[in-house]
S-adenosyl-L-methionine-dependent methyltransferase
Amino acid sequence: MSTEPAKKDWSATQYLKFGNERTRPVYDLMSQIAPHITTQNPRIYDLGCGPGNSTKVLLDTFPGANVTGMDSSPDMLSKASASLPDIEFIKGDLHTFVPKEGEEVDLLFSNAVFHWLRSPTRIGTLTRLFQTLKCGGVLAIQVPDNHNEHTHRLMREVATQHDSPWYPYFADTRIGKFEDKSRPDLDSIEPPNMFYNALAPHAASVNLWRTKYQHVLKDAGAIVEWVKGTGLQPYLQRIEHEEPKKAFLEEYEKRLAKAYPELVDGKVLLGYPRLFVVAVRK
């Protein structure tokens, strides 16, 4: 769910191949939000709503809510509107988003989108949004925290393989160098204390935790399919021709197979860490 324009749109279909696994953190986040929402008809924004899977959980949890979903991807918004035709979905960007003028918002919710922001703007954007909330309003986010996991480390390593047919597509960007904003790899997530220090001056409470999920997947190829819907997208969008793109994916899968050993039944465990933040406005 990109927050910046890309060469190609995101694929809701690809994203939803692992819909159950991707929605599990939404339920975990919701368990910590619900006690803070006491309004019968809360006003909620689902920021980076994707194909509407998180929006559906919000509606199930708060049946009387007035919910608006926001995303930058037309394909995601189309899928969300088709699955939840009675809900308002709007195109927007986290960098510039503000609730409608005069609204008192009960919950700003975001599942797996703030990691797409570059580090210099991430916490600042989060703090700005938090300050738009009414007293008692809740900001709740979840972000993948997997910059150093095999999945993302190997993306960087494969892309920078100099003798490869895909390397020319990455030669003009410095992968792994945070100062290069054009690179396809994402910035690592800041440590929890940085989120706390930014939000606490404006908060009645700040709750943070980190969970590393262990997803059982069929094989290394399934891991490729997982990240093709998210973190691998910026890499694949740079490779304009199909043959080098195919070769890139084959090399990436080969390295994943070594990094994620088979279990007793031939499946693999994908470790997937996520950081959660729930803050209540004072």
Notes: Residues 148-185+219-266 form a domain with the DNA polymerase; domain 1 fold (CATH 1.10.150.290). The chain has two domains: 1-145+186-215+272-282, 148-185+219-266.
